[in-house]
């Protein structure tokens, strides 16, 4: 079980949180102008990254606020948490054996 | 006789506390400090079980968690528990245990015929034999499971209680042997908060079995005692004996099972039987020791054949001498230590059979000096004895260890001790995702790169000498305290001790025999699952290469012991056969739990009333005292129907439904989700999340809305009321209240932070009473003097505020029944008072309380959908015929998906009504619909029944269904093909059965 640091509440057990999938996917401003394929890409096609992944978490059994996290999907290490609407911090690239 | 097996003195048992116990129905005596295994051996019992597949007689092999054979059923129903390792079970007065895997008894087991038929039971036997016909598998499985038998589950609920607790520490040390104690001492001296967990009842680890070891010139156990005193006095240290650290998860989260009261004769009533520790540690020190590896030789499984180190434990810790004449079979120097201990205990050492050409090491030199008979470059090539080994055959082996080079010689014995080296207990390290590396010199897999804040020390890290263990332990303790912000300035002097390991050794994974492998003799690799070297070779012959596949095909390492003694031997045999090195074959995945854990600790106190919260409305007590039967809706407990006298469910529901249309019904609707929405952008939020437009809704008016997911599928529905300029009250379905609130919050926080809207759940702040029927307005008018109720003043979908029965209330003219209805919201604490006032005043109208079942019938008569019943996450508003509520102009969540061409296909499943040919017949909900009934499945299915009831107002059954292209098929016939072979024919209609013009609703 992960130990996740909520930017508002501090470190808490994973059971207090809900996962929200990939971060920084913005809802298109004008969906009408998109083809079916483009819309499907927005709606369903998410990255399956090996390594540092930017993702959304909700502190659902805490402050009920959404935030972003940079998590390494290989080691499960959480490298950074940052607020919704802000840019991810610069992170060093990682090597995997 | 029994006395001969127990040494007259020594050991860590309390001879002043004799304990009586029963095994397989017979009474025996042991002492406090014994395990069941040591007590059985002290009574001369080796044969304790039958093997899993061949039902061969099996004896105690080990003295710890690795035990493959001595797996017993403990206690009487309902406190009985299967698959307990006798080698870890502390003896208590009155203990009752039985062998598993044998019928009718361990001495005579009818399943033993499988041993004679073993050539018919090769690896993968079940896969190969019971492949077809597939329908027969269920029959086969019944007999296979019965024949296999892994103990018995209790027949009644567990009478014991269990607990869970969380703990945080700077340093968690797993294992209280010399390395673990040294680590705990060092870390705690730096001020770190330490938890020390030990699976055994006594701390000290291997030192409990090695009386000759000294530390700082004193007996090693004196050092252990001093360490425990120091640790015990430190308030920052928690010592947890009898605690099995069974799982190592992410971010240094470990799960441990503590046996709290099982070892106590008098069990304090308030304490749980076991406790689950959920530990979050900044740093973890693994000092989990090592497990001895048996040699794989022909017929190596007879009772009386055990691990050399285990024998030393029984001798030195429990003062048990389980044999008179021993043969020792080894490939390393360590087993000579056991031979010397045997000699000191007065056991005849008939021979030391050594696979090595020249034994040179400290113990072998001592053994030679002591005159013990040593046969170098020899092997045991066979054993005799059914229920106890009575003879071995030894022969010289070739230099490459693969062939027998001379004739066999028989040696009589009643004990065979085998040692094939040591496997560090890397289970937790590997669970933590740390990588392993093969150590060629010591012949074992060792922790390599840790994946978490983990330190390995002692034998589990390849340090087999005592001084090395102490040194590594202390270093690990210091290293673990530092990142937790505790600098260890004074770790103390490094304790001094000797440093002898079991080397040199020669690695032979499969000991040759004079017979072809698998013929007239078996080389067991995994004794618990009865997997032999021949099975492994068969798997390779059949083309298996991956060790993970070989494991599953042969089931090696898949027993409750998870192959603690067998896995590395299996890898070695496979590697030899494939001409690879062991690390090239690799290890199988280590998975929790390290040793089996009872379900009880996972349930803990979350049982019975504490399993799941029950939500009750403020009016619940009235429903209870008026005979309501209840239905669970999510966590809510709602009145289902209120039977009167001897009424059946059907009769009660029909009466309630009829009363609503005939006069007056009253429903407790408090469970409806209610979200208070405030802020200047509230209407804009509603515009974006509902399919219809909200900008023009006036204050004091309500509107029905349909909420979609971004995929265009119906997610929820409900009525939202505009209470003020920037103030709305949204209602949701009972089951979706929390998820709708989360949905709205997610969009507000992540996509539309510019919207100024505040959401508050007020579901539990209001009680909601719904009055429905032709007399609803008349009754309500009697209870209020400040709300104008006429159709002009309070029309359908209007709201008014005032008092009802003197209680401040909001009155909504909303209907889910199709009748003139009023939903009255009052502060929750007034809910019961309001209900009672209405029921009393309504007596003259025969006011009838109705439950969820009648509510469902009433709304189905009107063709109103229930989200989750008419919809299943694949239904759009268009499918429901609700395109009237979908805005063509504005954007909303899900709109783009509705415009996909697939959504307009005419053959999508659409909501229709169904009328059965026989009006008395009620279709079962979920029934599959077909155009044509074929003789047998499969038949092309065109839809299914979503709701179905007997309607008293229509005097016939009605149903709603989703049918492919159904809207264009009104008037056509189709058939419900039921599982019992019956067919019900029905006609497709529109989904509104009653008052399609809504005259009752608006009147």
Describe the structure in your own words.
- The complex is a heterodimer of chains A (97) and B (1003).
- Chain A is mainly beta and 97 residues long.
- Helices cover 9% and strands 34% of the residues of chain A.
- Chain A has one helix and six strands.
- Chain A has a four-stranded antiparallel beta sheet with strand order 3-4-5-6, with no helix packed on it. In chain A, strands 1-2 form a two-stranded antiparallel sheet.
- The longest helix of chain A has 9 residues, at 36-44.
- The radius of gyration of chain A is 15 Å and the shape is globular.
- In chain B, helix 5 runs parallel beside helix 11 and helix 12 crosses helix 14.
- Chain B has 25 helices and 49 strands.
- The model of chain B has no long low-confidence stretch (mean pLDDT 93).
- Chain B starts with 13 loop residues before the first strand and ends with a helix.
- In chain B, the strands form 13 sheets. In chain B, strands 8, 9, 12, 13, 14, 15 and 28 form a seven-stranded mixed beta sheet that branches. Chain B has a six-stranded mixed beta sheet with strand order 40-41-42-39-33-43.
- Chain B is elongated, with a radius of gyration of 38 Å.
- Chain B is of the alpha+beta class and 1003 residues long.
- At the A-B interface, helix 1 of A face helix 20 and helix 24 of B.
Could you name the key traits of this structure?
heterodimer; A: 97 residues; mainly beta; 4-stranded antiparallel beta sheet; 1 helix; B: 1003 residues; alpha+beta; 7-stranded mixed beta sheet; 22% helix
Describe the main β-sheet of chain B briefly. 7 strands, mixed
> Would you report the number of β strands of chain A?
6
What would you call the structural class of chain B? alpha+beta
Specify the helix fraction band of chain B. 10-25%
> SSE order of chain A, as H and E?
EEEHEEE
Percent in strands of chain A: 25-35%
- The Cα radius of gyration of chain B reads 38 Å
The end-to-end distance of chain B, rounded to whole angstroms, is: 99 Å
N-end to C-end Cα span of chain A: 24 Å
* Strand numbers in spatial order across the main sheet of chain A: 3-4-5-6
What sort of overall outline of chain A do the alpha carbons produce when their principal axes are compared? globular
- The overall pLDDT average of chain A reads 94
The portion of residues forming beta strands of chain B comes to 25-35%
Low-confidence stretches of chain B: none
Total helical segments of chain B: 25
- What does the main sheet of chain A amount to? 4 strands, antiparallel
Unreliable segments of 5+ consecutive residues of chain A: none
């Amino acid at each position: 079980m992960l130990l996740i640091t909520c930017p508002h509440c501090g470190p808490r057990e994973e059971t207090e949180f809900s996962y929200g999938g990939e971060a920084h996917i913005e809802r298109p401003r004008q969906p009408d102008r998109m083809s079916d394929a483009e819309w499907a890409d927005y709606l369903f096609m998410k990255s399956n990254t090996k390594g540092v992944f930017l993702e959304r978490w909700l502190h659902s059994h805490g402050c009920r606020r959404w935030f972003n996290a940079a998590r390494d999907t290989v080691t499960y290490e959480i490298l950074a948490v940052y607020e919704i609407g802000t840019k991810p911090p610069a992170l060093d690239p990682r090597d995997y054996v | 006789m029994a006395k001969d097996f127990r040494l007259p003195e020594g050991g860590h048992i309390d001879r002043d506390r004799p304990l009586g116990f029963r095994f397989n129905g017979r009474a025996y005596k042991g002492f406090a400090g014994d395990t069941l295994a040591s007590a059985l051996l002290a009574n001369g019992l080796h044969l304790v079980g039958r093997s899993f597949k061949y039902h061969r007689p099996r004896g105690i092999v080990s003295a710890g968690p690795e035990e493959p054979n001595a797996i017993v059923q403990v206690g009487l129903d309902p406190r009985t528990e299967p698959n307990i390792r006798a080698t870890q079970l502390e003896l208590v007065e009155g203990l009752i245990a039985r062998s598993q895997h044998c019928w009718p008894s361990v001495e005579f087991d009818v399943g033993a015929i499988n041993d004679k038929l073993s050539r018919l039971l090769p690896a993968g036997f079940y896969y190969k034999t019971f492949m077809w016909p597939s329908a027969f598998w269920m029959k086969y499985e019944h007999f296979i499971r019965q024949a296999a038998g892994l103990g018995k589950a209790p027949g009644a609920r567990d009478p014991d209680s269990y607990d869970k607790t969380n703990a945080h520490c700077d340093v968690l040390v797993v294992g209280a042997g010399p390395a673990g104690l040294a680590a705990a001492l060092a870390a705690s001296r730096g001020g770190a908060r330490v938890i020390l967990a030990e699976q055994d009842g006594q701390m000290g680890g291997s030192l409990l079995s090695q009386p000759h070891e000294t530390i700082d010139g004193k007996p090693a156990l004196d050092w252990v005692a001093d360490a425990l005193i120091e640790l015990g006095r430190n308030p920052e240290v928690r010592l947890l004996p009898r605690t099995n650290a069974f799982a190592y998860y992410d971010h240094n989260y470990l799960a441990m099972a503590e046996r709290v009261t099982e070892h106590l004769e008098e069990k304090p009533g308030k304490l749980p039987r076991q406790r689950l520790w959920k530990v979050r540690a900044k740093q973890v020190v693994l000092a989990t020791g090592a497990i001895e590896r048996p040699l794989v030789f022909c017929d190596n499984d007879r009772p009386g054949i055990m691990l050399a180190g285990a024998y030393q434990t029984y001798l030195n810790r429990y003062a048990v001498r389980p044999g008179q004449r021993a043969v020792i079979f080894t490939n390393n120097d360590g087993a000579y230590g056991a031979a010397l201990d045997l000699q000191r205990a007065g056991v005849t050492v008939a021979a030391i059979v050594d696979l090595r050409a020249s034994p040179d090491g400290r113990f072998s030199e001592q053994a030679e000096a002591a005159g013990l008979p040593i046969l170098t470059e020899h092997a045991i090539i066979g054993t005799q004895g059914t229920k106890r080994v009575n003879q071995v055959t030894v022969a010289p082996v070739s230099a490459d260890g693969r062939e027998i080079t001379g004739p066999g010689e028989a040696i009589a014995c009643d004990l065979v001790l085998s040692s094939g080296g040591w496997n560090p207990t890397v289970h937790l390290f590997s669970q933590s995702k740390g990588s392993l590396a093969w150590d060629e010199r010591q012949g074992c897999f060792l922790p390599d790169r840790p994946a978490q804040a983990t330190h390995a020390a002692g034998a589990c890290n390849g340090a087999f000498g005592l001084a090395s263990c102490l040194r590594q332990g202390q270093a690990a303790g210091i290293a673990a305290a530092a990142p937790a912000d505790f600098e260890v300035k004074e770790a103390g002097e490094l304790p001094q001790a000797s440093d002898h390991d079991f080397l040199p050794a020669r690695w032979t994974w499969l000991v040759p025999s004079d017979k072809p492998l698998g013929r007239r003799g078996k080389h067991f690799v995994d004794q618990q699952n009865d997997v032999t070297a021949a099975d492994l070779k068969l798997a390779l012959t059949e083309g298996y290469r991956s060790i993970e596949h070989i494991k599953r095909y042969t089931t090696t390492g898949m027993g409750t012991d998870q192959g603690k003694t067998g896995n590395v031997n299996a890898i070695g045999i496979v590697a030899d056969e494939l001409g690879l090195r062991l690390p090239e074959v690799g290890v199988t995945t280590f998975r929790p739990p390290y040793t089996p854990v009872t379900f009880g600790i996972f349930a803990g106190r979350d049982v019975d009333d504490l399993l799941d919260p029950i939500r009750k409305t403020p009016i619940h007590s009235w429903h209870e005292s008026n005979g309501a039967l209840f239905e669970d809706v999510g966590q809510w407990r709602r009145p289902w129907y209120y039977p009167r006298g001897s009424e059946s469910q059907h009769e009660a529901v029909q009466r309630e439904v009829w009363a609503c249309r005939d006069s007056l019904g009253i429903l407790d609707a408090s469970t409806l989700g209610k979200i208070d929405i405030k802020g200047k952008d509230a209407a804009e939020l509603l515009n974006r999340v509902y399919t219809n437009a909200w900008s023009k809704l006036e204050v004091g008016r309500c509107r029905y809305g349909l909420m979609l997911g971004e995929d265009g599928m119906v997610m929820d529905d409900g009525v939202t009321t505009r209470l003020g300029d920037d103030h709305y009250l949204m209602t949701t379905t009972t089951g979706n209240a929390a998820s709708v609130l989360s949905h709205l919050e997610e969009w507000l926080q992540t996509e539309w932070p510019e919207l100024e809207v505040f959401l508050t759940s007020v579901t539990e702040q209001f009680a909601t009473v719904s009055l429905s029927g032709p007399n609803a307005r008349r009754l309500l008018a009697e209870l209020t003097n400040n709300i104008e109720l006429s159709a002009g003043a309070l029309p359908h979908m209007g709201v008014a505020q005032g008092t009802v029965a003197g209680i401040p209330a909001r009155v909504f003219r909303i209907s889910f029944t199709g009748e003139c209805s009023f939903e009255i919201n009052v502060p929750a604490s007034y809910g019961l008072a309001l209900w009672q006032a209405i029921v009393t005043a309504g007596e003259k109208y025969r006011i009838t309380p109705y439950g969820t079942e009648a509510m469902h019938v009433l709304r189905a008569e009107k063709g109103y959908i229930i989200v989750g019943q008419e919809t299943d996450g694949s239904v759009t508003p268009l499918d429901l015929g609700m395109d009237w509520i979908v805005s063509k102009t504005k954007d909303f969540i899900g709109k783009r998906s509705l415009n996909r061409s697939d959504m307009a296909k005419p053959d999508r499943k659409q909501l229709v009504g169904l009328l059965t040919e026989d009006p008395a017949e009620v279709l079962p909900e979920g029934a599959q619909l077909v155009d044509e009934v074929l003789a047998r499945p499969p038949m092309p299915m065109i839809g299914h029944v979503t709701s179905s009831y007997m309607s008293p107002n229509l005097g016939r059954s009605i149903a709603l269904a989703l049918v492919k292209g159904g809207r264009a098929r009104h008037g056509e016939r189709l058939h419900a093909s039921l599982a019992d072979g019956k067919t019900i024919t029905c006609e497709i209609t529109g989904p509104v059965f009653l008052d399609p013009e809504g005259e009752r609703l608006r009147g």
